[in-house]
């Protein structure tokens, strides 16, 4: 099968079940893992009325933080804060980062790859304009250290800092990010994002002419020969508006052209690498021509905005999202004369596509049969090759059914109220992850039932247990499932059926 076709076949299977946008661009959609501007899931924030009395300190990457009653980070997640897969030599996440960075060279672009994952709620939410009741603030979605501190949910947490620093005309931020989420082969509580931005400054460009400066920089970019469909105008008053209070039409049109060429070149690089890897495996390999198109979109922190889609099997599939940065972000960062573009993309999803890795859990494996396949690629990207499965261990699924407490409710299996507090289905997922770790492959809501007389709600979840490295014994699986049931009852107050 042709490389692009294989990559997009994987993408088709990895698109999320619902939602639109990963938290500055959750663009390959949630769980995976693009970047931040967008919806983070259903359900109201739950922590506003929680006591914030400090109970102890916790050390993360050598720094001590006060821990209070908002704290909700499992030990398994804390252990990942020091892994930094995006910086691990010859790791698929790091290799993917290198490939994307290669299309945004210095000195125009600076790379920021070692920001600490612990940030303030101001950096993660307030500096970006998230309202106080935004669902992304909920403890059902976000890992909190304390009321004012959390594990970043997106790379955009560093945006105001970088815009304000004015250290370079462009930047890329790659980092590990953290979200409580569903359990399946494309979702993991820790993943990796890349966010990029390019700015021009009215105070420094010749004659203050932003449009002329942008077009001059556009002329320096390489060209490509892929087919690009871009049927819409650079902006539209209703569908994709110009920021008329801050940008002229000429400025917005120039910035959009520079943005689109830059990202097209990045996508061409990814697919060219995939094609080269396929040719290493099959010298007779012949790929189909790559087709891409731009689609108007909406993101809270850019306008106008677009998604980039790639054509596969008679349909268009999203790859990333981007737009002209909202001027308020530059103003709030103390750089009001700047304007430019931004994009976001999920490194895990792109790596899964690029290497044809079928399960996101593999990225966290220390098994030499996985890691050794990519030895030497960081030093020579021409050696990139597709992942070869080293084993296939059987899965074992088990169901767990429970009654919600009589005062509880459930909305679509997603939002439940237990003991007077709201929580998300992610609370169920988190308990299962806590017990089973990376041996849980998938958790789905198999059934829900309301008693016709009492109205009491029953939920049934199907849990698929499977290790990627060895065969689980029946005793191991049964023991884990019993612990899951016990912890669900103890933590959530449900009655196991």
From TrEMBL:
Domain FDX-ACB: 391-497
Record has Transit peptide as a keyword: yes
Compartmental location: Mitochondrion matrix
Pfam family, one: FDX-ACB
GO cellular component, one term: mitochondrial matrix
tRNA-binding in keyword set: no
Keywords in alphabetical order: Aminoacyl-tRNA synthetase, ATP-binding, Ligase, Mitochondrion, Nucleotide-binding, Protein biosynthesis, Signal, Transit peptide
PANTHER family: PHENYLALANINE--TRNA LIGASE, MITOCHONDRIAL (PTHR11538:SF41), PHENYLALANYL-TRNA SYNTHETASE (PTHR11538)
Family: Belongs to the class-II aminoacyl-tRNA synthetase family.
Protein name per UniProt: Phenylalanine--tRNA ligase, mitochondrial
Higher taxonomy: Eukaryota, Fungi, Dikarya, Ascomycota, Pezizomycotina
